[in-house]
Amino acid sequence: MTAVDEARPATSPDARPETGTVLRFPAGFRWGTATAAYQIEGGAAEDGRTPSIWDTFSRTPGKVRNGDTGDIAADHLHRMPDDVRLMKELGVTDYRFSVSWPRVQPTGRGPAVERGLDFYRRLVDELLAAGIRPVATLYHWDLPQELEDAGGWPERDTAHRFAEYAGLVAGALGDRVSTWTTLNEPWCAAFLGYGNGVHAPGRTSDLAALRAAHHLNLAHGAGAKVLRDRLPDTAEISLTLNLHALRPLTDTEADRDAVRRIDAVANRIFLDPVFHGRLPQDLVADTAAVTDWSFVKDGDLEVTSTPIDSLGINYYSPSVVSAGTSESPSPWAGAEQHVAFTPAAGPRTAMDWPVDADGLYELLTRLRDELPSVPVMVTENGAAYDDYADPEGEVHDPERVAYLDGHLGAVHRAIEDGADVRGYFLWSLLDNFEWAYGYSKRFGIVHVDFASQRRTVKDSARWYADVVARGGLERA
Questions:
Q1: Bridge partners, residue 377, by sequence
Q2: Beta-carbon neighbour count of residue 298 at 10 Å?
Q3: Which positions are annotated as active-site residues?
Q4: Residue 439's closest CA among 190, 140, 71?
Q5: Burial status of residue 289 (CB atoms within 10 A of its CB: 0-12, 13-18, 19 or more)
Q6: What is the rounded distance in angstroms from the CA atom of residue 372 to the CA atom of residue 236?
Q7: Per-residue pLDDT tens for 271-297?
Q8: pTM of the model
Q9: What is the DSSP string of 252-308?
Q10: N or C terminus of the chain with fewer C-beta within 10 Å?
């Protein structure tokens, strides 16, 4: 049984009557929260699961703060029913979770392990019983270590292995899960994992990063084809990108060109193959000293542009770009000698990321203009702050409430200005293993005491429950 603070309910809409204008969201808007398997599940060696690249990376001295690992994390594997009850109290309509590839297909090849699939069957059943729509993400960075040993994402075969894995999960859950995301943030997987090495598997090669990016696009397209074949016609198939909101430091040609270079390697390297079946030619030119792109084979771009039903975007903060030189090793393949980054002004989160909701508005309206026929969901948005339980056992996080209020306001403004935004998924439900930061950063709207696994609902969770209950943001 999970220890949960039940001193105050997560949601009490009747206790907070409307006192002013409400910025209402469209009918049917999807109000969700999100997590990722390695960050919350624990049970790293249970149900036949074998190591992922993050198990290996977190055990490598100096890679993760304090030597933390995801071995236990938030123990969601064993506490899942209680965590679903928390979501039900919040009143969310949707829950975005990821499936652990090495829990389902430990070597990345061959048949599924039914014990691994059974956990996700139980999760989906609990969600449906609670009236919550399950949204499944197939890949949130936990590549089976055996596939990395065979070359990982820089190797073409990994894309084919992903498509096989997608079919296994679709076969197990396709009758109950109607919304599917192939990949989460392939930019991070490629450029933080293989470019500057701050994420698993920790490799540092511009060429490996570019190859990984292409093979992730290929995996997405091949996986989407398999999902389309295996799922009901009503299923929604999506991709989630962490698109970068970019601004030039000055209105000079050099700084505008710096933005162009980063836009190519951060945004259009995924948007163009997926939605237009092409490579950005300026990216090909910018990276000519790194590769001739001969790893892109005939027919690949037809696969990468397999039609999908919606696009998820993850947003936390904008980037200010200028002409200059980036630190080495850099995630900006082909741009390192031409681009520098300047910290944006204003308040900052515990991650030292600037708080700027206008960047989210800018991304949503960009997609409105560039991909007008593609519905969008904000699949991650949130902030880390230095939360703690006070002597009364309460967790007050007014900074997070302000962050969320501002960013939901930006979403509402974008919708009013014609952006087709269908939902918002708050990151994250629970405090969790925050990748290379270990357990030092807290993004959750539910506080987790990692020693006892006690859950405590934060003020931000109650605030979000009120927003969901009224279907919008209250304004004085």
A1: 312, 423
A2: 6
A3: 185, 380
A4: 71
A5: exposed
A6: 18
A7: 999 999 999 999 999 999 999 999 999
A8: 0.96
A9: SHHHHHHHHHHHIIIIIHHHHHHHHSS--HHHHHHTTTT---TTS-TTHHHHHT---
A10: C
Q: Which of 88, 180, 75, 184 is nearest to 127 (CA)?
A: 88
For residue 99, what are its two tokens?
Answer: 């499936």
Q: How confident is the model at residue 220 (pLDDT cuts 50, 70, 90)?
A: very high
Quote the tokens at residue 63.
């890679």
In the chain, how long is the greatest CA-to-CA distance? Answer: 63
Nearest to 247 by CA among 264, 260, 234, 266: 260
Q: Which residue bears the tokens 């993400």?
A: 137
User: For tokens 């079946």, what's the residue?
Assistant: 277
Q: Which residue has the tokens 């829990």?
A: 103
Question: What's the full length of the chain, in residues?
Answer: 476
Contacting residues for 33 by C-beta, under 8 A, at least 6 apart: 87, 90, 92, 94, 95, 96, 425, 426, 427, 428, 429, 445, 464
pLDDT at residue 4 is higher than 60: no
